Amino acid sequence: AKQCIANQSSHAHLNAFVSLADKAVVLARVAAAESTRGRHDDDLVGQLIAVKDNICTSDLPTTASSGILKSFVSPYDATVVKQLRDAGAVISGKTNMDEFGMGSHSAHSHFGPVKGLSRSEGHASAGGSSGGSAIAVASGQCIAALGTDTGGSVRLPAAYTGIVGFKPSYGLLSRWGVIAYANSLDTIGILANDARQTRVLFNKLNAYDPHDPTSLPPSTRQRLRTSKLGRRLRIGIPVDYNITSLDPTVKRAWIRSLRDLEAQGHSLHNVSLPATRHALSAYYVLAPAEASSNLAKYDGVRYGSRAEGPDGTPDSVLFSKTRGQGFGPEVQRRILLGAFSLSAQAMDNYFIQAQKVRRLVQRDFDSVFAAPNPLLSVEDVEKESETENGVDVLVCPTAPTSAPLLEKVQNQDPIDAYMNDVFTVPASLAGLPAISVPVDGDGEKVGMQVIGQYGDDRMVLDTAQLLG
Ligand code: GLN
């Protein structure tokens, strides 16, 4: 813990944290936790863990890196925070991020951008939106961190900073106390130095929470399979991910990882996921639509900061001034996009179409995995089980390139920024477990992604351990 605290000072310029817990308080909590050692399982006792600033904590502000929430302090801890504290972990601070989770480089923050790994030409992008969490882990300011992953926000920063980032199956980890971006996609994710540590946190957090209406109930949890490590895995190679914009270094790393797995006795199989081509467009219709609805509550009356104005200002003026000042440009863009795609004139052509694509993406995955989707009804499973030639997991890159320079992406066209999510968004649309693992890519680290069938989280973690 002392080393982590020292690293916080020496790496303060990376801007990984929005707020840090008081050092004396942290050390006292570590000492108190240490004194309970031996009472339960000690994996996390006295360990410093950082938490993304869209996850509520009662002792530190929760801003989602937005101007509109800059002085918000939650009256309670999110369930995941409580679970970590109960396990003896100490929350060291709240990490910087793209405002409300909207972005891929942690550059859209009210508190300034997170700086990624240092290169001779300048700082790289830390990835986003959980870039603060990723850099906090990568620079040794904590042993692990929580993030959120809606369309890749844990996996992409992990890939860009050379660490592990895991997005579990949708509904396994509680979202109670997590500020919503797009509820049907939002997932708590874990960032750590290796797959083993990631698994330790996952095991602590993977529990039903009655406070979260989307938390998977115990009866369904019982239907999930247990891992099958120790047998030959059938590894799927999604050929549709071999796109022209794939960087040669990333492609070579992909091939090397596959050969590596083959050398360990696992078999490789080409699979096709044709709807993947449309997944990114569908995501950028659905996520903003849900966001525009979720963010409507920040109006200066019920939540957050309020624009200055004399009493008696008409509500509409108060709302628009508050929202105009409180939300950054990317959030405003998403709200407009979402409000448009949900409007009567655009609904059929955008929102409904995107929902259909989402269903096709889910079907694609179900058709390539050997295991049936445990969320489908029994009749559906019978119809769909053509499992003979199915695969256990898919392995593909996390992003088309390694981390770009921060300076470059700050002036990037929004559409180009959205392109970074092309490989992470499909698993989000289908709610599947997916992890990014750092592998060697011509001397630098490249993120390799493992995707599994719904509920096969342990198998995904097992495969990550084989790669890492
Ligand atoms: N980059 C994606 C977005 O901006 C993903 C963000 C996320 O997963 N929170 O929507």
Structure, explained:
It is a single chain. The protein is of the alpha/beta class and 468 residues long. The chain has a domain of 297 residues: Amidase signature (AS) domain (Amidase signature (AS) enzymes). 37% of the residues lie in helices and 14% in strands. It has 17 helices and 13 strands. The chain has an 11-stranded mixed sheet with strand order 1-3-2-6-8-7-12-13-11-9-10, sandwiched between helices. It has a two-stranded antiparallel sheet with strand order 4-5. Strand 12 and strand 13 form a beta hairpin. It is globular, with a radius of gyration of 21 Å. The relative contact order is 0.14. The mean pLDDT is 94. The structure holds glutamine. The site of glutamine (GLN) has 14 residues, from strand 6. This is Glutamyl-tRNA(Gln) amidotransferase subunit A, mitochondrial. It is found in: Mitochondrion. Allows the formation of correctly charged Gln-tRNA(Gln) through the transamidation of misacylated Glu-tRNA(Gln) in the mitochondria. The reaction takes place in the presence of glutamine and ATP through an activated gamma-phospho-Glu-tRNA(Gln). Subunit of the heterotrimeric GatCAB amidotransferase (AdT) complex, composed of A, B and C subunits.
Short description:
The chain has 468 residues and is of the alpha/beta class.
